[in-house]
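Milestone 3.1: sequence recovery, worked example.
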């Protein structure tokens, strides 16, 4: 299974190393797969953790819970993603990692992976790229939270999920439907708005014939309109990738 961004924006001369590194890490993790139930915390916030993971099935998130009960979903991991690579480098994780849905993952002890990282440049390149890919996603989301409207944020989120699921092979490239296990409350925790506001935006999208979110599934009725709504927040990868709704060699302009 490919990563859920298929090495976005990589330098072409490093593609071979990235692919080989992907295969080598998969080999190191082989036979370590396990099942985790929805709601399970894989990594406790502010603790040391010994493992690096690859998600095979399901959805997982990095989240930070504030002392007063407010919560922020920071990143969503989809099938194919490596996550918790920072276990190799930090003494504690500042944020928790939790399963959003019933999931299957594989893992490797950070010491074993670091030994391979130090000895094999392909594995090192793949691990470093993962850290940079998470930075790219975070930068896009910070821009969305700081400058995007609620409609633009939700459109970006749906476009991003569809594109990454298609790139990883989890859904067909032309699919306009996919499972999304986030509740409206969890969407609110990620989008930075209230659950009531999420419901209002979802209703707007449904009434305009753009997209419907119901019973854990997303149905996109007008991919062009959804992409146009997300366009101001799409980064260079999203604007150039057909799986994110963009036409090749053209840039979708905001309406």
């Amino acid at each position: 299974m490919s990563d859920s961004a298929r090495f976005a924006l990589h330098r072409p001369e490093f593609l071979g190393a990235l692919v080989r590194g992907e295969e080598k890490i998969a080999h190191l993790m082989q036979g370590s797969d396990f099942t985790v139930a929805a709601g399970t915390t894989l990594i406790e916030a502010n603790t040391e953790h010994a493992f690096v993971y690859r998600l095979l099935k399901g959805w997982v998130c990095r989240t930070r819970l504030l002392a007063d009960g407010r919560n922020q979903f920071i990143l969503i991991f989809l099938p194919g993603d490596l996550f918790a690579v920072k276990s190799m480098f930090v003494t504690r994780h500042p944020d928790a990692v939790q399963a959003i849905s019933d999931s299957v993952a594989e893992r490797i002890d950070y010491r074993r992976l670091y030994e391979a990282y130090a000895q094999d440049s392909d594995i090192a390149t793949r691990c470093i790229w993962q850290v940079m890919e998470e930075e790219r996603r975070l930068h896009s989301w910070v821009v969305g939270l700081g400058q995007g409207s609620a409609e633009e944020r939700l459109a970006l989120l749906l476009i991003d999920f569809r594109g990454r699921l298609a790139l990883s092979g989890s859904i067909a490239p032309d699919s306009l439907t996919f499972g999304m296990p986030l509740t409206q409350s969890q969407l609110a925790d990620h989008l930075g708005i209230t659950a009531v506001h999420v419901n209002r935006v979802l209703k707007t999208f449904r009434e305009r014939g753009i997209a419907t979110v119901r019973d854990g599934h997303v149905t996109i009725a007008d991919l062009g309109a959804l992409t146009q709504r997300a366009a101001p927040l799409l980064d260079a990868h999203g604007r150039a990738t057909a799986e994110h709704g963009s036409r090749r060699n053209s840039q979708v302009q905001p309406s």
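The first strand starts at residue 34 and ends at 36. The domain at 149-244 is CATH 1.10.10.10 (Arc Repressor Mutant, subunit A).
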